Predict the 3D structure of the following.
Amino acid sequence: MKKITFDELKKEGYKDIFVWKDKKGTYYSWHKHPYEEIRVMLKGEMVINTKDKSYHLKEGDILKVPAGQIHEAYVLEDCEYICGSKY
């Protein structure tokens, strides 16, 4: 599994890159952002749902959520992930 670095994300145009941690049971209700988001799972598990699809993310998975895409997230297991935004 290839590890993605902050520098690689910066080269792809992502800004505000940081590592975030969530505890099992955390829930982010339906929302959207005016920019593209990326999630790079470092450990743990979470589910991100859009109106059309569900993504079960585990260590090593990467998900890009397009600008304006309505989504929600459930943390199934304590997790840690890289976040970035592309404006």
Q: What stands out?
A: The first strand starts at residue 15 and ends at 22.
